[in-house]
């Protein structure tokens, strides 16, 4: 799969915020362009007030980095830019630098489909400062959206309790790009198929769909419409029954279903797209069973999400296939994940890594410094805690203390002898060369299910989930606090006097 080649026909280097280019120019101008740095991409809060997030979008990032370059058309455009003094904004030497620049970063990332938690790095980028900086916007654009939709899909599928969820959202998606990325992420998150045919072609996702109300309305009668559809698709007929009158629609579907059966074919089911879904699904189930169609599926659509599905389950509806569109592909109740990308360390002239801290009046916005990674602890196959730690730090082999980065009073002692461990950040690129074998989309989808199974059910509650333990290893916590205090002492040159 080549996203850039198939969809954009060339370079995506200008898919960035303007300030990334102005900073890149200033790095080059000040001689810092090649200084080695480390940035981490992470988020601070789960979306949808949930207890987990599904990491998605790594495949897009691999494709982006493999094709990262400034084309002659890109450089010609940048050469036309002028500042407020009406002078050329970027020097020719800088444009020549961009022309010759080749992607050379190390990228480590959690594998796509991994269940992740706040403050843990989803992606770590190490390399020339200018390249790390230029990757910020596209990486955030990709990870924020796809992780958001994959998480929403996982929640919806949890609500459906193993019943098929069909993604129907293309017509309501945020443009062509949003529609394709959403279909991919929704499938990763657990949906069984998409209505998006291009997504089926590009990503290998199963496609599904029946017919719309316009099909029924184009005939003189509903019966004629059903008969014509059954004639066209005798092995996969699902009839939309609520164009005029739902109960009569069910009756007509049964009649056509019997005609199909007389020809050795079988009606797949019906779809209800409006009205009281719980009531009409139960009416339909009773009618279908009495008519000899106990295996006929009842598909429901109409602005469904995990909360409505949960409600319909609680009402003991007879729906067993769920068509979800708008509220899935737009992440209707939370339009953004809020992932960020922060500098955590920079290499000085002596070759020493210098950890970097960003302060804020909000403790949640103070970054985690240093060259760090994340380890997950398991007990009997269940994930029990994540630890963020300095990569070169020698850890206590007997016990590790992890401290909540937002609430230092929350602490957990981990005894390695009692747990299995997994380092979550995997090498993806080394010195700009892809070293990771990309899984298929089906393997990613399976990984999501395996990851969710590794979580205790309390973390998967749709409302008021139990907080999953995640913390800084005590040495990293201490480093962070020291850097915070040091930065406060030098702030404006007078903090230490107070």
Automatic annotation (TrEMBL):
Source superkingdom = Bacteria
Q: Which InterPro entries match?
A: Aldolase_TIM, N/Namide_PRibTrfase, NAPRTase_C, NAPRTase_N, Nic_PRibTrfase-Fam, Nic_PRibTrfase_pncB, Nicotinate_pribotase-like_C
Name all Nicotinate phosphoribosyltransferase C-terminal domain ranges.
373-480
A GO MF label: nicotinamide phosphoribosyltransferase activity
What pathway does the UniProt record associate with this protein? Cofactor biosynthesis; NAD(+) biosynthesis; nicotinate D-ribonucleotide from nicotinate: step 1/1
Q: What sequence ranges are listed for the domain Nicotinate/nicotinamide phosphoribosyltransferase?
A: 188-347
Q: Which reaction does it catalyse?
A: 5-phospho-alpha-D-ribose 1-diphosphate + nicotinate + ATP + H2O = nicotinate beta-D-ribonucleotide + ADP + phosphate + diphosphate
Query: Which Gene3D superfamilies does this UniProt record tie to the protein?
Result: Aldolase class I, nicotinate phosphoribosyltransferase
Keyword entries, A-Z: Glycosyltransferase, Ligase, Phosphoprotein, Pyridine nucleotide biosynthesis, Transferase
CDD domains, alphabetized:
NAPRTase_A
Q: Which GO terms describe its cellular component?
A: cytosol
Nicotinate phosphoribosyltransferase N-terminal domain spans which residues?
14-144
* Keyword match Glycosyltransferase: yes
Pfam families given in the database record: NAPRTase (PF04095), NAPRTase_C (PF17956), NAPRTase_N (PF17767)
Supply one GO BP term. NAD+ biosynthetic process via the salvage pathway
Spell out the post-translational modification annotation for this entry: Transiently phosphorylated on a His residue during the reaction cycle. Phosphorylation strongly increases the affinity for substrates and increases the rate of nicotinate D-ribonucleotide production. Dephosphorylation regenerates the low-affinity form of the enzyme, leading to product release.
Q: What class of enzyme is it?
A: ligase
EC number(s) for this protein? 6.3.4.21
Family per record: Belongs to the NAPRTase family.
Q: What is known about what this protein does?
A: Catalyzes the first step in the biosynthesis of NAD from nicotinic acid, the ATP-dependent synthesis of beta-nicotinate D-ribonucleotide from nicotinate and 5-phospho-D-ribose 1-phosphate.
Please give the name of this protein: Nicotinate phosphoribosyltransferase
State the organism of origin: Algoriphagus aquimarinus
């Amino acid at each position: 799969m080549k996203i850039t080649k198939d969809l954009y026909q060339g370079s995506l280097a200008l898919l960035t915020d303007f300030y990334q280019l102005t900073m890149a120019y200033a790095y080059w101008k000040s001689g810092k362009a090649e200084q080695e740095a480390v940035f981490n991409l992470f988020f601070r809060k789960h979306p949808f007030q949930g207890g987990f997030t599904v990491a998605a979008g790594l495949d897009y990032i691999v494709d982006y980095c493999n094709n990262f370059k400034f084309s002659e058309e890109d450089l010609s455009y940048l050469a036309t830019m002028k500042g407020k003094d009406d002078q050329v904004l970027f020097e020719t030497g800088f444009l020549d630098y961009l022309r010759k620049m080749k992607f050379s970063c190390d990228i480590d990332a959690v594998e796509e489909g991994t269940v992740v938690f706040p403050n843990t790095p989803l992606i770590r980028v190490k390399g020339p400062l200018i390249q790390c900086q230029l990757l910020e916007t596209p990486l955030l654009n990709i990870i924020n959206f796809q992780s958001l939709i994959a998480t929403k899909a996982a929640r919806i599928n949890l609500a459906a309790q193993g019943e098929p969820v069909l993604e129907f959202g293309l017509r309501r998606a945020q443009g062509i790009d949003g529609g394709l990325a959403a279909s991919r992420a929704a499938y990763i998150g657990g949906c069984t198929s998409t209505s998006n045919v291009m997504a089926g072609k590009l990503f290998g996702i199963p496609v599904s769909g029946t017919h719309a109300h316009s099909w029924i309305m184009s005939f003189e009668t509903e019966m004629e419409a059903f008969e014509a559809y059954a004639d066209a698709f005798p092995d996969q007929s699902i009839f939309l029954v609520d164009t005029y009158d739902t109960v009569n629609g069910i009756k007509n579907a049964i009649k056509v279903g019997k005609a199909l059966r007389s020809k050795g074919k079988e009606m797949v089911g019906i779809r209800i797209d409006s009205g009281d879904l719980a009531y009409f699904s139960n009416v339909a189930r009773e009618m279908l069973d009495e008519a000899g169609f106990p295996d006929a599926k009842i598909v429901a659509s109409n602005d469904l999400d995990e909360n409505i599905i949960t409600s319909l389950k609680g009402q003991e509806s007879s729906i067993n296939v769920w068509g979800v569109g708008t509220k899935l592909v737009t992440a209707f109740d939370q339009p953004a994940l809020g992932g960020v990308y922060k500098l955590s360390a920079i290499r000085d002239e002596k070759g020493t890594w210098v950890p970097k801290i960003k302060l804020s009046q909000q403790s949640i916005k103070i970054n985690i410094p240093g060259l760090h990674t994340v380890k997950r602890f398991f007990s009997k196959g269940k994930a029990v805690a994540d630890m963020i730690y300095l990569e070169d730090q020698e850890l206590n082999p007997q016990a590790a203390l992890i401290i909540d980065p937002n609430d230092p009073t929350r602490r957990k002692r981990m005894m390695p002898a009692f747990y299995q461990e997994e380092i979550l950040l995997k090498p993806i690129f080394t010195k700009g060369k892809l070293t990771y074998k990309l899984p298929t989309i089906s393997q990613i989808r399976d990984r999501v299910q395996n990851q969710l199974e590794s979580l205790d059910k309390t973390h998967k509650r749709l409302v008021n989930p139990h907080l999953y333990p995640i913390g800084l290893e005590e040495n990293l916590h201490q480093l962070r606090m020291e850097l915070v205090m040091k930065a406060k002492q030098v702030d404006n040159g007078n903090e230490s006097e107070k």
